Amino acid sequence: MVSSSHEAMHRIFQEYPGLFAGVSRVLGLDFAPPRSITAMPTDLTEARPVERRVDTLLRFDCDGSAGEESFLLAIESQGKKDPDKHASWAYYMSFLCSKYKIPVLLLVACQDRATAEWAARPVSLGPRHWPGLTLSPLVAGPQNMPRITDPDEARADLALATLSVITHAKDPDVGEILKTLSTALQGVAEAVADPIIEFTAQGLGGNRRAVELWRNLVAVDLSFYKSWLSEEIRDEARAEARVQNAAESILLVLETRGLDVSDEVRERVTGCDDPGLLRRWLTNAVTAPSAEAIFADTGGAGAS
């Protein structure tokens, strides 16, 4: 199954094709500025019932005056070592070269150093006496992507700053990069910020601590945006506020009626996060002979 972080690592190039310029610069390569970049079909399936699909495929057409030729950029997200991938990647490159008749470059995006170093090693697919075909992909991962912690630098290339977050998603100190990105997004047009916010949330994948931190940063630093993430956070905040208000109303009714509210009752009411149950307790609080009696039809004072 494809993970969200897998999608973010290659789909960000679909959304921001120019990101490759920043990545190639970081990797020490000098490609001519493209005249145009075209998203290409990713389905590499043959007539035979064997499905082969590259994650993202872009065509870079460069100006002839620069002495550079057009090329295809195949981008693969790789979450772990997979010996079968070398043959698949070689197939992708051979197929694409044969189909489009232009050079093909493979870029592999990773989120952990071990996988990135594995993917970056040249692999010979021929016998050791005569390696007729050697696979040598470019790799973008935590070992070579910059940790962008300067808001001005992040603002200058938001796509690269987002990839910085994604490739360092498993870094214990990713919070510093996240804070930098959220600061850089302040004042940026909503249409520009929305996909950045969403790619970042997807790219953090299974790092729950980082996901929660990003949600908090979006809620506080970027509260004026209306992305699905910010709206989701606001909905949760509104739901929490309703629950808190309901609990306070129950206690207020009981105290206004002069009933003794024990610590046990107070803790149970304030610790409940079920809106339906709180509504029943509020209704009971209007006529209950004691504070404990509000729980009479919901399992007793000690029930949870």
Tell me about this structure:
- The structure is a single chain.
- Helix content is 49%, strand content 12%.
- The chain has 304 residues and is an alpha/beta fold.
- It folds into three domains: 1-145; 146-225, no CATH class; 229-295, no CATH class.
- The longest helix has 29 residues, at 228-256.
- The protein starts with a helix and ends in a 19-residue tail after the last helix.
- 32% of the residues are buried.
- Mean pLDDT is 84; it is low at 299-304.
Short description:
The chain has 304 residues and is of the alpha/beta class.
- Our estimate of the beta-strand percent is 5-15%
The N- to C-terminal Cα distance equals 37 Å
Order of helices and strands: HHEEEHEHEEEHHHHHHHH
**What's the number of structural domains?**
3
**pLDDT < 50 stretches:** 299-304
Number of helices: 12
Largest sheet: 5 strands, mixed
The dominant shape is: elongated
Task: Assign a percent range to the helix content.
Answer: 40-55%
Q: Radius of gyration in whole Å, from Cα? A: 27 Å
Largest sheet: spatial strand order: 1-2-3-4-7
Number of strands: 7
Report the average pLDDT across residues. 84
Structural class: alpha/beta
How is the secondary structure organized here?
Elements: H1 4-15, H2 19-26, E1 34-39, E2 56-62, E3 71-78, H3 84-100, E4 104-110, H4 113-120, E5 123-124, E6 134-135, E7 138-140, H5 151-156, H6 158-167, H7 174-185, H8 190-203, H9 208-220, H10 228-256, H11 263-270, H12 275-285
Parallel strand pairs: 3-4, 4-7
Antiparallel strand pairs: 1-2, 2-3, 5-6
Helix pairs in contact: 1-6, 1-8, 6-7, 6-8, 7-9, 9-10, 10-12
